[in-house]
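Hello again, I could really use a second opinion on something today. I've been staring at a protein lately and its backbone has me curious. You're getting the sequence in one-letter code plus the fold written as tokens. I'd be grateful if you could look everything over and explain what you see. No rush at all, and the record is pasted right below:
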Amino acid sequence: MKSVRMLGVLLGLGLLAGCSSSGDQAAPPQDAAQAKEAEAAGKLDTYRQLLRIGNDEMAVTMGHDILDRYPGSAPAKEVQKTLPEVERRWKENSEKARLAALWTYQVAPMAGGTQSTATIYSSQPSGENRVRLVLRRHTAWGQSVFLYGSGHGFVCRGTCTIPSEVDGKRIGIKAFAPPTGEPALMIRDDKAFLALLAKAKKIRMDVTLVDGEKKETLLFEVGGFDPAKWQPLPKGKGS
């Protein structure tokens, strides 16, 4: 019985020794703090480099990582001084790039001449029901602006007025349906429309579709239009 109790004591001491040995292997709190400081400093250096090369997107990601993982640290305080402006600039430039990418510019042969087009699809509706807003210059036909749909066209008898909204301001845009039967609406005063487009960010147009005379609001996010990319006609041709 005595030997059994002694074995229990020895086992207990062995367990205690094991715990003590395991504790010796753990990093002291001071070393862990120093490692975290070094890690934060390394990420801060990366953040600075991203700013130097102008990579705002990655800088924003790294900056938020530093703020989330090392709050109150010296690196976090430094990041906080510049991150709001970097993030604002990145979002602004990203939106500009998105809007610019909505436009397509093309020069190609067309019906015995050459045409230059600038085209944007509607943001609403989207998918298969999208409608194109097309700016066109043609060596024989001159300059025109029109809507082109995917269905059977739009209801417009004679000259009709499209109820529209340009950046919140209500206006009426005169249009007519082409006599050749395409699913399109031609803008009556293309020059006035282009002057309006040059300053606009969003244009909404309320149209009526031939299919079931359904009412539909078209939204075009036109703020990324670049007139310099819409190639002019050869000198002395078109209008």
